[in-house]
């Protein structure tokens, strides 16, 4: 079976959940091979092996890690040339979508971004995307070259399948043209102790209905082990950081469970959460548009409903 390349999302060798998801998806299309960019591959190997990576192409090269995007695309193109894969999968992020676009030009292959699902299909690979703020579901197939696909987090539950994760070092000379923007410093984000919003399996969000008091939203999120999101109204009021904003001008999330508390359901908010698998809303206005798209709705005051829900989960 042909190889399917998966770009590893990691922090200093600590592999993120999205990589396990992509390796699981890759097994539907061929034999997964991980592409690891950076040092400390030894820390990453056990998890890559656990989710089915037969090979790990390692690009440990400062000319790639010290510069923005263009060298990464060159590095991926070098691995594509070496492996002749059936497909290349990357976790969706601003950087990876740019790298994927550059890679598709270099390899003259078709590109699909922000896929929600990927399946093997007759003569190719079929993807599912959501378009126009979730108004349309689009099925698409790449017709030229090995498909390059970026996948949103939570596209598929990770399933373990032990493999060997054999390390294959990749030698590469990055062109001077690609080294046009050097990274001069990077600060790790202060950790909240909660999962990353775009990666979380569950998200509890608060809106203007919180009146600035996010404590019931946070308490419910914490009992579930969920990330906390916010509507733009809450962010614009200064009640929650912009990094937590969900929507058209915020983050796009696609968790297993999304709980919207005191959020009316404006189209710009839906654009960031409509592809969530299960949606619950708590709103005291039964006419609120959010109830049009929920799986479960609670008409009530979030300051009464959320503490009860938190206690009920705690009691389990
Ligand atoms: P509101 O619309 O004011 O709704 C508050 C809701 O809380 C109401 O339904 C009310 O019934 C309910 N409520 C009040 N009190 C309680 C209570 N005690 N218990 C339960 N329910 C209660 N918005 C985003 O969210 N994300 C974006 O990325 C985004 N991008 C935008 C981009 C553009 C270009 C524009 C024009 C707008 C954008 N917006 C975005 C703003 C969007 O149009 C809405 O204004 C915003 O989503 C409203 O936020 P909200 O639902 O919290 O507030």
TrEMBL record:
Keywords: Electron transport, FAD, Flavoprotein, Transport
Cofactor-binding details, from the entry: Binds 1 FAD per dimer.
Binding locations of FAD: 208, 231-232, 245-249, 262-269, 283
GO molecular function, one term: flavin adenine dinucleotide binding
One Pfam family matching this protein: ETF_alpha
GO annotation terms (biological process): fatty acid beta-oxidation using acyl-CoA dehydrogenase
Transport among keywords: yes
Quaternary structure, from the entry: Heterodimer of an alpha and a beta subunit.
UniProt similarity note: Belongs to the ETF alpha-subunit/FixB family.
Purpose of the protein: The electron transfer flavoprotein serves as a specific electron acceptor for other dehydrogenases. It transfers the electrons to the main respiratory chain via ETF-ubiquinone oxidoreductase (ETF dehydrogenase).
Protein name as it appears in the record: Electron transfer flavoprotein subunit alpha/FixB family protein
């Amino acid at each position: 079976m042909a190889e399917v390349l998966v770009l590893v999302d990691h922090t200093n060798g600590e592999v993120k959940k999205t990589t396990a998801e992509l390796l699981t998806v890759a097994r539907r299309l061929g034999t997964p091979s991980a592409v690891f960019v950076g040092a400390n591959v030894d820390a990453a190997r056990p998890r890559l092996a656990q989710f089915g990576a037969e090979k790990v192409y390692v690009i440990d090269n400062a000319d790639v890690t010290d510069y923005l995007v263009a060298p990464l695309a060159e590095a991926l193109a070098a691995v594509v040339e070496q492996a002749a894969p059936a497909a290349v999968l990357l976790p969706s992020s601003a950087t990876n979508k740019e790298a994927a676009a550059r890679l598709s030009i270099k390899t003259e292959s078709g590109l699909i971004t922000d896929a929600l699902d990927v399946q093997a299909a007759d003569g190719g690979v079929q993807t599912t995307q959501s378009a126009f703020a979730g108004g349309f579901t689009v099925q698409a197939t790449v017709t030229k070259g090995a498909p390059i696909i970026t996948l949103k987090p939570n596209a598929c539950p990770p399933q373990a399948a032990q493999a060997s994760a054999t390390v294959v070092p990749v030698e590469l000379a990055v062109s001077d043209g690609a080294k046009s923007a050097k990274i001069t410093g990077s600060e790790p984000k202060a950790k909240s102790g909660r999962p990353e919003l775009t990666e979380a399996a569950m998200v509890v969000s608060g809106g203007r209905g919180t009146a600035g008091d996010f404590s019931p939203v946070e308490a419910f999120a914490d009992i579930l082990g969920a990330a906390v999101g916010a509507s733009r109204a809450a962010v614009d009021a200064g009640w929650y950081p912009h990094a937590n904003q969900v929507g058209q001008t915020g983050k796009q999330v696609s968790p297993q469970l999304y709980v919207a508390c005191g959020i009316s359901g404006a189209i710009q908010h839906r654009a960031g959460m409509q592809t969530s698998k299960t949606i619950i809303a708590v709103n005291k206005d039964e006419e609120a548009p959010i109830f049009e798209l929920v799986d479960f709705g609670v008409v009530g005051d979030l300051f009464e409903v959320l503490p009860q829900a938190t206690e009920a989960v705690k009691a389990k």
